[in-house]
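=== RUN LOG ===
request id: a7f3
mode: sequence -> structure
chains: 1
length: 287
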Amino acid sequence: MKASIFDKKNADIAWCPGCGNFKILEALKGALLETNQRPENLVVVSGIGQAPKTPQYFNTHMFNGLHGRALPVATGVKAANPSLTVIAQGGDGDMYGEGGNHFLHTIRRNPDIVHLVHNNMVYGLTKGQASPTSQKGFRTPVQVEGVFIEPVNPVAVAIAQNASFVARAFAGDVDRTKALLVRAIRHQGYALVDIFQPCVTFNKVNTFKWFKDHVRYLDENYDPSSQKDAFELALQNDPFLLGVLYVEEKPAFHKNLPVYDGNPEALYSREIRWKQLKNIIRQRQYS
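=== RESULT ===
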């Protein structure tokens, strides 16, 4: 990929060679360029894990918070300044495990954010135990007899909760993943993009080849407006279906806040008052 305004010089990337996260980072930077985003107008919020390291590796504003807590922070950032493009980003454990409660209620609020999840069906940072999306029978150093409980189906959950945009992608296909991210960024409201991302170190089952053999793209003529049809397709897992599964247009969270009602200027009048900000920081340092 050609150099871009989102590249960060001398970034010390800690991912394993061959990790699917590299492909997601490439697709994301491409989508940001295609949608004419600027680093100064972009905020990426993440939690804990290998996937949440992503915003450290490219040129953006970022907020790295607690494990599973990226979504409420991202919701607050967007509500405070709706002119920003906000992305909440993390792994399947971070977002669907520790952050599972926030996942449900963020869907209900419908903030205008992109929810990007690197789904590798394993906990990579903490050395390979099963995650909420690990498939039955998956063996790990902790689950030595294999996983026996049902995996979370995040896209089915999101559709059942009437999320306004639900898509699934595969990191091994950068071009189509970028195209899905472009659609998610342009969507007005909560947009989930669950991305299958092989972990080359701790998941020797769900590899790049395994995903290629177990995914299929939705028909080009598929209409994502039917919740019933989308839910039925989300339950399919052999193959897993990729693409935009469900879309419903409805007002984003900040559009329902009284502070913005009848005051369109409030959406964009967020000039930084540097003197006051410096005074606050100084007071905090010496308090």
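=== NOTES ===
The first strand starts at residue 42 and ends at 46.
Residues 60 and 264 are 26 Å apart (CA to CA).
=== END ===
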